[in-house]
């Protein structure tokens, strides 16, 4: 299932972030008229949109703003055909320190987008969830019927946002579909994410070792290009899918230990691996197992992942090699 994007008016929140920048880039390259929201800051930065090729970036209407402002969101949603809502606070460790900010951005901010889209008569909204809402798996592979478990303030706030999207579909017939991507990785991802952290340490000569937390959790890793194609496929779903949630994942699970060994092989790295307690989540908060059952989404949209973990890691490593002269100062753990 596909959607013709040429000349369609599309609003992407969180376009300055990791997945959002790739999605905005793909939509603009497909001919869509993209309004890309970047969080306002005093550094004149548009986040990862600054790394998008100049001709594609020039085709976008980049707007600074904040989803927590309902009036600004109301104005930005007017005249849009499709809204992709990706803006969120996502750093899990920081959510332990500042949980209220996650409620304000992820729950209230999402509510602002939903209400603005409803009032503007937007024809389709794709709301972004996360596999973290499932917590540690009670059964695998994890289907959409799996119980939701708030094992961190971050995941609890995303559960709240998901429920708001569902409630708007039920209460107001809002044409919203919720996409629940499993662990996405690739170029432009923060070192707060485990794959980026491992690759940076493996490649950076200033890192004398690879420091990691718990190596035993297992994850369903998905290359960002595949996740972007999932968003675009979700936007093509018809009316009978409104109010529904769909998993997007590979159905392949590896441990953090296995991923790390793959990175070491691909980078020809022989650095020692050290345990760093700071990189571990609280014991009852760690999600030990994530493995997607994406069969509902495959049946609905015809979507499947196309990139193997080895190939995706190779592409991500190649990108990191071009960034080593611009890495952040210091090699410590990012919270």
What is the helix/strand order?
EHEHEHEHHEHEEHEEEHEEHEHH
Total number of strands: 13
Tell me the distance between the termini. 39 Å
How many helical elements?
A: 11
* CATH architecture verdict of the largest domain: 3-Layer(aba) Sandwich
Q: What would you call the shape?
A: globular
Would you give an account of this structure?
- This protein is of the alpha/beta class and 335 residues long.
- It folds into two domains: 9-185 and 222-248, 3-Layer(aba) Sandwich (Rossmann fold); 194-219 and 252-291 and 307-325, Alpha-Beta Complex (UDP-galactose 4-epimerase, domain 1).
- The protein has eleven helices and 13 strands.
- It has helices at residues 18-29, 54-58, 70-77, 92-97, 99-120, 153-172, 194-203, 224-234, 256-267, 295-301, 309-321; strands at 9-13, 33-39, 61-65, 82-85, 124-128, 176-181, 184-185, 209-212, 218-219, 222-223, 245-248, 254-255, 272-275.
- Strand 1, helix 1 and strand 2 (33-39) form a beta-alpha-beta unit.
- Helix 5 packs parallel to helix 6 (153-172), helix 7 (194-203) runs parallel beside helix 9 (256-267) and helix 9 (256-267) crosses helix 11 (309-321).
- The longest helix has 22 residues, at 99-120.
């Amino acid at each position: 299932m596909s959607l013709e994007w040429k000349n369609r008016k599309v609003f992407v929140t969180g376009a300055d972030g990791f997945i959002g920048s790739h999605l905005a880039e793909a939509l603009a390259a497909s001919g869509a008229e993209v309004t890309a929201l970047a969080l306002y800051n005093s550094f004149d930065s548009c986040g990862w949109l600054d790394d998008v090729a100049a001709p594609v970036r020039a085709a976008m209407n980049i707007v600074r703003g904040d989803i927590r402002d309902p009036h600004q969101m109301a104005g930005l949603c007017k005249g849009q055909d499709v809204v992709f809502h990706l803006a969120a606070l996502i750093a899990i460790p920081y959510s332990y320190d500042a949980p209220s900010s996650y409620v304000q951005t992820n729950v209230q901010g999402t509510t602002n987008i939903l209400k603005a889209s409803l009032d503007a008569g937007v024809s389709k909204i794709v709301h972004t969830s996360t596999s973290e809402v499932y917590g540690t798996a009670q059964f695998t592979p994890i289907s959409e019927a799996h119980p939701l478990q708030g094992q961190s303030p971050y995941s609890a706030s995303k559960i709240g946002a998901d429920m708001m999207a569902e409630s708007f579909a039920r209460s107001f017939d809002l044409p919203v579909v919720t996409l629940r991507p499993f662990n996405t990785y690739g170029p432009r991802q923060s070192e707060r994410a485990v794959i980026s952290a491992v690759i940076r340490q493996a490649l950076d000569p200033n890192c004398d070792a690879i420091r990691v937390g718990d190596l035993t959790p297992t994850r369903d890793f998905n290359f960002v290009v595949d996740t972007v194609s999932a968003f675009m496929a979700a936007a093509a779903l018809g009316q009978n899918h409104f109010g529904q949630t769909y998993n997007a994942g590979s159905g392949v699970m590896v441990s953090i230990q296995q991923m790390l060994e793959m990175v070491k092989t691909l980078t020809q790295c022989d650095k020692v691996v050290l345990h760093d307690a700071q990189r571990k989540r609280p014991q009852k908060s760690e999600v030990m197992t994530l493995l997607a059952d994406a069969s509902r989404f495959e049946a609905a949209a015809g979507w499947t992942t196309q990139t193997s973990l080895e190939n995706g890691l190779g592409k991500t490593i190649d990108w990191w090699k071009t960034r080593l002269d611009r890495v952040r100062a210091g090699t410590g753990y990012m919270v």
